[in-house]
Amino acid sequence: MTCHHKPENTQCSRCHQKQAALYTAQNLPVEVKEARANVKAGKVDCVNCHDLSKKQTLENISLACTQCHDPAYVDMLRGWREETLEALKKTQSSLGQASKKMMAAIKEKAEVREAALELERAKKAYDFIVKAKGVHNADLAGAILRQAQEQAQKAEEILAGPRKSGRN
């Protein structure tokens, strides 16, 4: 760990802005219809879950859960992680499909501006959740990823519509 990862440092959000944004549902780099903070936001600080004297593994982080909760809570943390990973995979697949269709449309010299904007927004949302580590707010991460999937689908629908020839 680098020098700033010390137990006395409680200003985590200075460097970990994406995680803080997801956790608190504030300063999100993507638009979300109904963004809600993690229920622990404002009550539980980063260092309450992340023991900075230990390597930041799911196992070590889950040990912190049992300081306040019963051992079953560890399974919830694993569930949130698995749920987020599944949503990331599904979103990545949607983005891949839409990107392939976008490339085909570009080769045909079709107008793709509107679809490209949708796809760009979807990719930005996906990248945000990857970097923010969705487990910091699994509900909001899921909502953002569902929205990204919808945007990728919309891009595909635009590309499947009547094609106009134009500049890319």
* CATH architecture tag: Up-down Bundle
Count up the domains.
1
CATH topology: Butyryl-CoA Dehydrogenase, subunit A, domain 3
- The number of strands is 0
* Alpha plus pi helix count: 6
Shape annotation: elongated
Q: What's the helical proportion of residues?
A: 55-70%
Overall mean confidence score, pLDDT: 88
Gyration radius, in Å: 19 Å
Written description of the protein model:
This protein has helices at residues 17-24, 46-49, 58-68, 72-107, 113-132, 138-160. Helix content is 61%, strand content 0%. The protein has six helices and no strands. The model has no long low-confidence stretch (mean pLDDT 88). It has a single domain (12-160), classed as Butyryl-CoA Dehydrogenase, subunit A, domain 3 (Up-down Bundle), CATH 1.20.140. Helix 4 (72-107) runs parallel beside helix 6 (138-160) and helix 5 packs antiparallel against helix 6 (138-160).
Main attributes of the structure:
single chain, 168 residues, Butyryl-CoA Dehydrogenase, subunit A, domain 3, mainly alpha
